[in-house]
Amino acid sequence: MKEEHDSNNSRKVGGKHININFFWFLIIILTSIILSAVITALSLEAGNEKAVNVGTDTRSEFSKLYSVYDTITDNYYEDVDRNALIESSIQGMVEGLDDPYSEYMNNEEIASFEESVSGDFEGIGAEVMQEGSRIIITSPMRGSPAEEAGVEPGDEILAVDDEPVEGMNVQEAVQLIRGEKGTDVTLTLARNEGDPFEITITRDTIHIDSVTYEEVDGVGHISINRFQRGTNDEFEAKLNEAAEANIEDLIIDFRYNPGGLLDEAVGMINQFVDEGETVLYLEENGGERKEITAPGPSNDNTDDFNLYILINEGSASASEVFTGAMDDLTDVTIAGTESFGKGIVQQTIEFGDDSLLKYTDTKWLTPEGDWIHEKGITPDIRLLNPDYYRVEMLGPDEVFTEGISDESVPSIKVALDTLGYPMDDFDESYDKKLTKTVKKFQADNDLDQTGNVTGETATAIMSELRTYINENDAQLNYLVDYINGEFTRSEIEKYAKEHAEILEIQKPEEDDSEESSEESPDEEDTEE
């Protein structure tokens, strides 16, 4: 039996018999199977690099995303940049929020973002935001090249140096607008659904002094341009300066202030309210509210001020946080026009590759629980800016001449009337009286006396009007006159309204604007 069993496990090779023990025979077979499996697995992994193993170890909602990624990387007719695919998919995910304040930033964009909260950058000095596919100017910064060139809140950027911005996100548009100090950039803009026009702006180094102080006819005037790092410290210094000058009436001016760092706004409120006082609430998507309180003692120098806050349609976010809190907690008087209405807050999260996600995570509410989003804050004293603030931009390539009727003609008449060339009417007719007035303006400015508004004449009218506006702050003067007792509240409101009845008043559409800080939740548009 033993010989028979052994013969069943023997093999004849070259006329010789080789006997194999059954145990070692099994070992050889198993080893071969294992080695074959390992080689096959390594081969598959090297030759077919998939993003994921869909359906086994991955969340099912991402299966389509992974399938698209694998299909493109495996089958696209050219080599693809895999990292670019991933970055663009993240960008698309954030854009899918349809939230102009949420954005994903790469390394270069983060550098721009950091500049915006530190206060120094090179550019034109304007806050921009994305509204759907549109790039909108939220506000030009006071004293910036953009403001001096005539850029206004609500202007839509159509092109930068003739390159259309359609399809760009806000950061891409900002990168086109930014540039070295002393270089020019030409913006193609649209205003109030009017025809496109161009403005050429010389870039400069923009240092944002976030707080400035002056006295106007015995009234203290503190202007806050934005909420950046250190703004509260600057604000405290100006408050103390006003107190040392024995100022009784103090205006805090937030016009065209797009917001910024939330903790700076909290610190500024704390100058006026005691430690532990609720200054705002943050509300998450589940409705849970977090109470934000004043972190320290108030500033004793603020006790005796008669306080006024000046706002307009460009006052947003942290400006509204401060104004809303002071309205609820103190005896402040708010003047100007309705604020922008941004009642949401952004937070940031950084990733290991130096990219950053800024996203809206909460609402903010005033101490009394009011949510001002898309409504804004209504002033106690409504002070409309005069018509000359709403003059339509006159492009040098346009031609306005006697006999035409055009919707831009009232702007020409308002501008000339403001500059000391009185007009009898402000209709759309370019009549003989307007031709005569234009010739007088041309003679005074050493221009060819054609009677037409075009070329150098249009440029000169716009330039002189901007200078006039910069030297005559109508809303501020209205409020100072009221404080000094020259008008009652109803009288100053009526006076302002009567000087704002020719050109239509339009509030910029709801967008951003805002920014975040690594220190605290924040807000805002992207700064150029």
UniProtKB/TrEMBL annotation:
It comes from the Bacteria. It holds the Pfam family Peptidase_S41. It is a single-pass membrane protein. Residues 110-178 form the PDZ domain. This is Probable CtpA-like serine protease. Its main location: membrane. InterPro entries: ClpP/crotonase-like_dom_sf, CtpA/B_N, PDZ, PDZ_6, PDZ_sf, Peptidase_S41A, Peptidoglycan-bd-like, PGBD-like_sf. NCBIfam families: prc (TIGR00225). Residues 509-528 have a biased composition (Acidic residues). Residues 501-528 are annotated as: Disordered. PANTHER family: CARBOXY-TERMINAL PROCESSING PROTEASE CTPA, TAIL-SPECIFIC PROTEASE. Keywords: Hydrolase, Membrane, Protease, Serine protease, Transmembrane, Transmembrane helix. The chain crosses the membrane at residues 21-44. Belongs to the peptidase S41A family. It is found in: Cell membrane. Gene3D superfamilies: 2-enoyl-CoA Hydratase, Chain A, domain 1, 2.30.42.10, 3.30.750.44, PGBD-like superfamily/PGBD. It comes from Salinicoccus siamensis.
